Structures are given as C-alpha cells and as structure tokens.
Amino acid sequence: MRVKQLLGLVVLVVLLSSCAMKVTEPNAGGFDPQAFRFQDYEDTDSFDKAIKTMFPVGTEKSYVLHILRDIGGANVESIVETHARRDGTKAWDKVPVENAYRYFYRKPRSLFGWIWTGTVVFDDNDKLKWIRSSVGATSPL
Question: Is the sign of the CA dihedral 49, 24, 104, 81 positive or negative?
Fold first, then answer.
C-alpha cells in the first residue's frame, strides 16, 4: 500500500510542477502570447529571439502593439527617426522613419533593475517591416 501512495505522490508532484512552468519560447508548444511578460527574458539574445519569433516580418501592427503595450505593459511612442547602421560600417546614423514606434519597459518598483527597449517599423500596409530589441541594466541616474 505504501508503494502506491509513494508512486501517487511522485505523479502528483510531477504533474503540479509541469503545470506551474511557464513556456517562454515562442516556438515551443504551449506558448501563450497573451501571457507575455518582459521579465521572462533576462538577456538581449533570448529577448531578441523571442520577439522576432513572436512577431515575424509581415505581422499586423495592431497585434504587435497590443502584445507589447496591452499585454506586456510597455510604454509605446511614435517616432520619426531612429538609429541604423551605415551600410558596410559599424557607424550609426540617424535615419528618418515613418510608421515607427519605440517601446520601453522598466521593471515596476525597481530603482536598480532591468530595462527592455526596442524599435518597430511597419510598412505602408501596417505590416511589420523590422523589429529591434535589447535588455540592459538601469540605474537611478
């Protein structure tokens, strides 16, 4: 009888732990964009990969902004220029853009912490043209 109880306890623990784990990889089964949180990504590489997987080129503008702003809680503002690399160099230039937005998310109630930022640019049909993102440490200064 104790073997059955022990086996039942092991199965219960495994089931409960698997239910509690949040899927943050957009390509993985069970990923839910409606549960997107910036805090799930602690470095630029994982965040950039997730963002580009969630929002492939051609994604509707309304969906991208809904996930970033309404679900993720980012501040989103329209911009008229952004920085882009000059062709063939490592130099950055300011370039004019239309239908572009910058998003910014800072961990709530955090003096020192993490900040998630990025730029999204849409084409004339409000389809995603490109997206850039990064994660970094913040300070109060």
Answer: positive
Distances, alpha carbon 24 to alpha carbons 38, 94, 136, 140, in Å:
10, 33, 19, 29
Q: Per residue of the chain (141 residues), what is the pLDDT tens digit?
A: 677 676 666 655 555 554 456 677 777 777 788 888 888 888 888 888 889 889 999 999 999 999 999 999 999 999 887 766 656 666 666 767 788 898 989 876 656 667 888 889 999 999 999 898 888 766 554
Residue type (1 letter), 75: N
pTM score above 0.90: no
**What whole-number distance in Å separates Cα of residue 98 and Cα of residue 118?**
16
